[in-house]
Amino acid sequence: MPSVLRANMKISAVAGTAFVDFSEADVLTDYLGRKLTITDSAGKKLVGYIKAAGTGETLDSELVTGGDFSNAGDWTCDAGWGVTGGKAIATSVSGKRIYQAYSYTIGILVKYIVVIDSISGGYIYGIIGGAIGISPITSGTKTEYLCTTASGNTRITGTAASIQLDSVSIKQVLTPSATGVTIVSTSGGTTYNWASVESGFNYNDASSYTYEIEARKIYSGPFR
User: Fold this and answer.
1) Phi, psi angle pair for 30, to nearest 5°
2) How many CB atoms lie within 10 A of CB 138?
3) What is the Cα–Cα distance from 34 to 53, expressed in whole angstroms?
4) d(CA 204, CA 133)
5) Mean pLDDT, the chain cut into blocks of 10 residues (224 residues total)
6) Is 124 strand, coil or helix?
7) What is the DSSP string of 190-215?
8) Domains of the chain, start order
9) What gap in Å lies between CA 9 and CA 211, rounded to an integer?
10) Where do runs of H (alpha helix) occur along 67-205?
């Protein structure tokens, strides 16, 4: 079966806005109406029916309070972290975090953007609603798409000699891009949800996924 990398996989698993995007043209959009089965690296399956091609990514409102770090009171800091001068700064931290409480809806896809001014001697990573991001290691802008798996907090955890962050943004993705498709629970249906989710399916698998699209059924007779 063909495969898709986690970095290219975007899954929204919440009822009402179920969709998937493999970030590659014609891979999904050529198979409207077909059954789609996605399998994670542990063999767990996610099944749904392709409804329509996406028309463009749209985002909901900002889920982070004070993502520009203008107000230290918006964030709780472990030892070694601090918010000052519109920056989040850490010195000699090992597994320590800066975080804020937020009750995420489980199964939503979020777009997570962190702008790193500088980092030395280590790395940081985000944990958003139970979903762990790939660690941004160098300065610059890091963008990831994560499917939430718990209500959780918004956390940025670091292990480095020094870290300076400029901003962080988290928004729910409501619709897929033109390379993605909406998903319904039955063939030809109108309920935007997955048909079945095997217990333990990994929405943010660090390994690649495989997928299978149902072949088109051909009527073989008798003809009259």
Assistant:
1) -85, 0
2) 10
3) 12
4) 9
5) 93 98 96 97 98 98 97 97 97 96 95 95 92 84 95 93 97 98 97 98 95 75 43
6) strand
7) ---S-SEE-TT--TT-SS-EEEEEPP
8) 3-57+176-213 (2.40.10), 59-174 (2.60.120.260)
9) 11
10) none
**Ordered DSSP codes for 33-71:** T-EEEEE-TTS-EEEEEEEEE----EEEEE--SSTT---
Number of H helices, E strands in the chain: 0, 17
Dihedral-angle region of residue 209 (phi above 0 means left; psi in -120 to 50 means alpha; beta otherwise)? beta
The neighbouring-strand residues paired with 112 are: 144, 170
What is the pTM for the complete model shown?
0.92
Contact 110, 168 (CB under 8 A): no
Report the alpha-carbon distance of residue 10 to residue 6 in Å, rounded. Answer: 8
Q: Which amino acid is at 157?
A: T
Q: Which two tokens stand for residue 27?
A: 């891979």
The full length of the chain comes to 224
